[in-house]
Amino acid sequence: MQRIPMTAEGHAALDAELKNLKTVERPNIIAAISEAREHGDLSENAEYHAAKEKQSFIEGRVAELEDKLARADVIDTSKLSGDTVKFGATVTIMDEESEEESTYKIVGEDEADVASGKVSITSPIARALIGKELEDVVEVAAPGGAKSYEILKVEYI
Known about the structure:
Blueprint: E1 4-7, H1 8-37, H2 46-70, E2 72-75, E3 90-95, E4 101-107, E5 118-120, H3 124-129, E6 137-142, E7 145-155
Helix pairs in contact: 1-2
């Protein structure tokens, strides 16, 4: 059974989604199916089929979340320190060509959100950064060709 690395925030978000599905969404869909059944012939009842499809999605997502939470390897990033990039690090890098700075936090796959500066541990940039140290230069294989970045800052927030 492969462990899934995630931050405490990511674990809490998945747990909250699971609780919402079980306590809010599941009862709502059961009520919708019950109401649709009262409308008569189920073979031609679009409401019933839509509700059953949504129920199937909810049950699948519940099973997926329960599995991920059971295999979660929660890493408390506040206890990490140093100048080496590890899971949970917030890294400021500079594009050596354009001198543009970017800051990314390396998180689990389910937490990734590039718009808010969170990149998945499996992303090309995170894989290139892991194990490197402050002031190292890393090469990242990007869709437009290889890019070089210098690590300016490594933080564990």
